[in-house]
Amino acid sequence: MKKFIFLFLLVLTISGCSNVEKAEYLSINKSELKSSYDSSDYDKLTDDLKTNTIFLAGEMHGIKENYTLRLNLIKFLRENADVKYYLAEMGYSSSFYINRYLSTGDEKYLFLVTNSIVGSYDYSLEDVEFWRSLYKYNNSLPEKEKIKVIGLDLEHQYWISIIHLNDILRNKDLGSDMTEVLENLNRLSSYICPDMNNTENILKNTQGIKILYLKKITESINTDLRKRKFLYKKILSKDEFRDLELTLSNSSDTARIYSNTGNSRYFNCEREKSIYNNFLKVYGKLGSGKYFGQWGGFHILQKSRSDEDSFASYLNLKDSPVRKKVVSIKFVYDNNKHKSTNRKLLNAFKEYSSSKFTLYKLKNFNSIGESPCPINDYDPSDITEYFQYGILIRNPKKVTAL
Questions:
Q1: For position 371, what pLDDT does the model report?
Q2: Which member of 20, 47, 239, 270 has the greatest number of CB atoms within 10 A?
Q3: Are 30 and 358 in contact (CB under 8 A)?
Q4: What gap in Å lies between CA 355 and CA 375, rounded to an integer?
Q5: Residues 138-152: tens digit of each pLDDT
Q6: What is the β-pairing status of strands 326-334 and 54-59?
């Protein structure tokens, strides 16, 4: 009888421990985040800092709190993982002018980009204040430690590429064969942006500027560059030549992909490929640094979904230089107005959260349930195949339109 009672208690104890482990996993593997930056809030990320190269956060656009987390993650990853590059969801030329703002403090460069995105989620007070905060933060750092912004996306505001190409090639002597091309480029750029100090009405100036103009200019310069690469390298500085190549490549992709906007599947698939290829080009020129980016939620998913590849899933391809060195952090919003990618995940996060922001480490997420937590209703995969961390945002607010 005593033996039976002992065995019964033993089984009960083991079973109880198992349930406690499942029930308390998130409570143990979480960190409450303050709105103001505190490095210790993000210590749950520490185990992944040394062995990984790319850190990606996935947001739902148009949410005010995204910008608080973006700046805090940049600070933490720069200070603890030596991240120096911010991969932005914008075109390369747009990031060129953002970097000019960050290096000079002259807001005409910031507003060239901002005034070109009127009507988008990023056209907001929070977006402007984020860049101003990053400028101030950079000013507190030594030159070699400052954050550089790298745009990997298509140049959706394609006229910025036209302005950028003109900035690179203006007053450059490329011979009589290119005189007409450069004159047309300068004329077009001047029409779009007659005064860099006043870009408030830039969208009105671009209404008659079709993407076909960018395509023709890009093709002309590319053709000449292939024939006389030595001349361009001689005339341009190293940075100018790098910017020219990256801008031409991105402009070509933008013109090609935007020519078929009627096919959304084609557009989305080609866009993700272009983002990844742009990363490979940048990575090849900058070397093995560390990078952080905050993008729309789909871009940071590390596994293909419904046969659609994402930027992050490309990063984990066999021939990728950063394969298995990618960490994804998914933002989850607790508000009925915002759809969640996964109700089970949201409910689990809410149960163990008591603050505005809560960071969860999900590497062993299956230990809190009997079956994998899917990314959505039709995918039975373990959610950690898509992202490894989650941040719950309670009562998110819309951005403030300018």
A1: 59
A2: 270
A3: yes
A4: 24
A5: 999 999 999 999 999
A6: parallel
Residues of the chain falling short of pLDDT 70: 1-23, 336-341, 364-380
Collapsing DSSP states into helix, strand and coil, what is residue 185? helix
Pairing assessment for the beta strands 291-296 and 54-59 based on DSSP bridges: parallel
Q: Which residues contact 286 (CB under 8 A, 6 or more apart)?
A: 85
Residues 6+ apart with CB under 8 A from 234: none
Q: Which amino acid is at 264?
A: S
Q: What integer pLDDT is reported at residue 378 of this predicted model?
A: 57
The residue type found at 232 is Y
- CA angle in degrees (0–180, nearest 5) for 236-239-240: 40
* SS3 at position 82: coil
Where does 172-263 have alpha helices with state H? 179-192, 202-205, 211-227, 229-235, 238-258
Give me the amino acid identity at 160.
Answer: I
Total residue length of the chain: 402
The predicted-structure confidence for 173-227, as pLDDT tens digits, reads as follows 999 999 999 999 999 999 999 999 999 889 988 988 889 999 999 999 999 999 9
Between strands 30-33 and 389-394, the pairing is unpaired
